Each structure stands twice: as structure tokens, then as C-alpha cells.
Amino acid sequence: MNATTSHLCTALALAAAGVPVLPLRAGKVPFGNCPACKGNACGGRPNMKAPGPCRCPAPCHAWAAATTDPHVLTSPLWAPAWREAAAVAYHPGGAGLTVVDLDNPDAITWARETLPITRTVPTTRGEHWLYRGAMPSSNAVRPGVDIKSLMAYARWLGPGTGTVTALPDAVRTLPVKAPAPVRRVAVTVPASGGGGVCRHRTPTYLERGIAMAEQQITDAASAVHATVYRTFLAVLSTHGRCGCLTDAHTARLFTAAQAKGETARHCTDAWTNARARLGV
Fold it and tell me: What is the DSSP secondary structure assignment for residue 219, as one 8-state letter?
């Protein structure tokens, strides 16, 4: 089996398991834009703010090109990329996963002392630790540690060993900067029009609201998509105008929704639509 066939077979097997995949060139880099997108003529899809798929005929735009569609993967337009491919990559967030990329022995030691045990995959210099659940990606969250999930790709290096466990708060909070000390002053909410006091700066109030929203999504027995949208709307209507919500809060809500079967794209659409409706 030549390299082209081997990489494509791996990609098709992963796609059949629901893992969005794409080819990588030598050096672990994605393919350049197709002629239709050269010079960002398509509108600059590489700079997308939301985790949507690439709609181009060739595997453009890195992680956004990842797909589970076997007809796309085997199409003539993708054939040149597979002939040049040096590896297969996947979009962890699109598969509902988060990869903690540990780039050296010190980082691995830190993970073993700090993070819950989960599936591990050896890499050239370290290890990938895989968790179930998606979150925003972030580089250099600490020395030798990157987070690869939404809007990122990771090289496929095999299935690894161990059981994939749920994404822990210890990982969710890695990209979050320590908050500034809370000032004991009342904060006015300009968007409310009523000059009310912003209670959302109280950590307990905000934490209780996020926890209740997670539980509401988790308890949904039907109409999950509608429940997710209504819950996002409620959270944003209460906490969305004061700058209280962080990426960690959003990731918790997205993770709860994805645990009920929602895709990362549906979560993003519901969040975006709720913000648009409220004008936040």
C-alpha cells in the first residue's frame, strides 16, 4: 500500500467513525488555498470567528477543511492533496474532543500530577491527552502545553491507549487569565436602560446561573436544540451585557449541549442567534 492509499484509508476510517479529517503536507502544515480562494478572494475564511466548515472544492483553510464526507475525501479535487499528503489531521472540536498537547517531558510530568487520567497518544516530542468535550483552542496556556479543540487541527498519530474521559475544569480553565480583584462598587448596566445594579459581578451569582443552565440542558428529554437555544438566550439576557461571561463559561454550556448530541456548529449557531436577538 503506497503512502497516498494509506493516508486516504486512514482518513476514510476516521470519517466513518465521525471524526472530521484533512490531509497535511510535509512539516505538519495544511494545504494552501485552492485557486478560487487565492489571496482570500473567498472572503478570508481562514479568519473565521466561528467553527464553520470550508465550502471550497479543495482542502482549503486548515481545520475548516476537515470533513467526514467520504465523497469529498475521494473526490478528484482532493486527489492532488492526498498524493502529496505526508500525514492525516483531524478537527478535535468537530469530533467533540479536546487535545491537550504536551510538548516536552516537563509538560508531561505536570499533566500527570495535575490532570485526570485519560487516553494518551505518543507524539514526536511528548504526548496528546484526549478528553471528551470541546472548548476554545489556545496556545501556550503554560510552558509546553497547547489546547487543540475548536478551530484547530491535530495530527492523527494513532488511537492511543486508555479511556477517553470527560473534559475537566482543570483543562477548561487553563486559557482563562486570573481575574482582576473584585472592586466593591455597584456597576451600572447601560444596556438595560433602567440604571440597575449589576449583580453579575458576584462570583456566586454567576456560577449559580451557569450551573443552572448546564443542568437545564442536561435534563432536556426532548427538543434539545430548542432547549439549548432558550438556555443560551436566558444566560445572555442575564449575563451578556456586563462583560461577565468568559470563554470558560461558554465552553461549559457548549460541552453540556454536545453531551446531549448537539454539534459544535449547532452550538455556535444557537449562541450567535441568541446574541443577535438580544443585540449583545
Answer: T
Q: Which residues contact 280 (CB under 8 A, 6 or more apart)?
A: 191, 236, 240, 241
Cα(253)–Cα(181) distance, rounded to whole angstroms?
A: 25
What three-state secondary structure class fits 146? strand
Phi, psi of 81 (to 5 degrees): -65, -40
User: How many alpha carbons fall within 13 Å on the CB side of residue 81?
Assistant: 29
CB atoms within 10 A of CB 61: 27
Q: Locate the DSSP E strands across 55-96.
A: 87-90
Residues 141-189: tens digit of each pLDDT: 999 999 999 989 999 999 999 999 999 999 999 987 544 444 443 333 3
Q: Where are the alpha helices (DSSP H) in 1-86?
A: 3-16, 70-73, 79-84
Instruction: Tell me what the pLDDT averaged over the chain comes to.
Output: 83
Residues of the chain with confidence (pLDDT) below 70: 1, 3, 38-52, 177-203
What are the counts of helices (DSSP H) followed by strands (DSSP E) for the chain? 9, 9
pLDDT at residue number 183: 44
C-beta neighbour count of 243 within 10 angstroms: 11
Scanning 184-246, the segments in alpha helix (DSSP H) are 203-218, 224-239
Residue 113's H or E segment, with its range, is helix 105-114
pTM of the entire structure? 0.62
Nearest CA-CA partner of 269 in 252, 254, 249: 254
